[in-house]
Amino acid sequence: MTHLRGHDAAWREWRAAMAGSRMHHGWILSGPMGIGKAQFARAAAAELVAEPGIAQPPAQSHPDILIPEHPPANKEEEKKRDAGDPYETKRSIPIDEIRRIQHRLTTRPTLGSRRVVIIDPADDLEKNAVNALLKSLEEPPVGTFFLLVTHRIGRLLPTIRSRCRVLRFQPLDARDVDAVLADAAPQADAATRAAAIAAAGGSPGVALEFVEEDLGRVHAAMQAIVQHGDPDLTLRADLMAAFGQRPPRRRIVATLDLARSVLSGALRNSPPDRQARIIEAHAAIVTLAAQAPIYNFDPGMLAMEIGALLAQAAMPREASYR
């Protein structure tokens, strides 16, 4: 029986539904980024399509588990993919990918009577792709189930949400995050793991990025700005230096995830007037994170903008330097 650390309640709800007489055809897996929803989706899909007495391949290569892809970002990245090299992908899942999946749905499942479509994440669907997906959710083929992984359920259309059952995921506790780090990043020493856990806000994904991207200095600079403000810009200069002059895309994304986590942590035990500033800064970081993979931001300017938003959360608006 498949087990993913920290999600016992979600498994109980999922398996109770599987054991029922009428399994809902559409599911939204909702919760913060990096807590294991995509892993859950693949493991749950593998259980759903399994047939007694029929050998089942892994979820990533199962013919009855369909996952639309983020295609290469451009022609140059497409050449890298074709050559077997690492490549950058588009941020959005285009309508062509959904149509490719829908074409597969016109045939019968390969190994059994059920098939699962995983959209990971559904937040990244282009507008036309969302409309195409809605048609499949309205009239799903017999034996077809949809698992929509989402980090921000409010971004999904109400018409999508109304056709799906929501399965909610909560951040993991520190012990579970530590166990994930011990398995996935055994090279990290105790001090690094402790810092990663503190920064992660219950997200093993953020904790792993913290270790892999060596974000200790970045985290220290962010915490200092949130706690003390930065009226003379010196802490923002520290953040820019820790960020690096030419950070790769992975480090940029990890840094933005870390900024969101730092703000989420600051929200706890803050007075109401400061909470409003933190929430506003968090929303701006979320917007910036959506824009960063699309626009070619200057790294130094991006680091300064992140620092400015963190400073906004620390100080009254009239004292914040933007």
UniProtKB/TrEMBL annotation:
Residues 72-89 have a biased composition (Basic and acidic residues). Residues 55-89 are annotated as: Disordered. It comes from the Bacteria. Gene3D superfamilies: P-loop containing nucleotide triphosphate hydrolases. InterPro entries: DNA_Rep/Repair_Clamp_Loader, P-loop_NTPase. PANTHER family: DNA POLYMERASE III SUBUNIT DELTA, REPLICATION FACTOR C / DNA POLYMERASE III GAMMA-TAU SUBUNIT. This is AAA family ATPase.
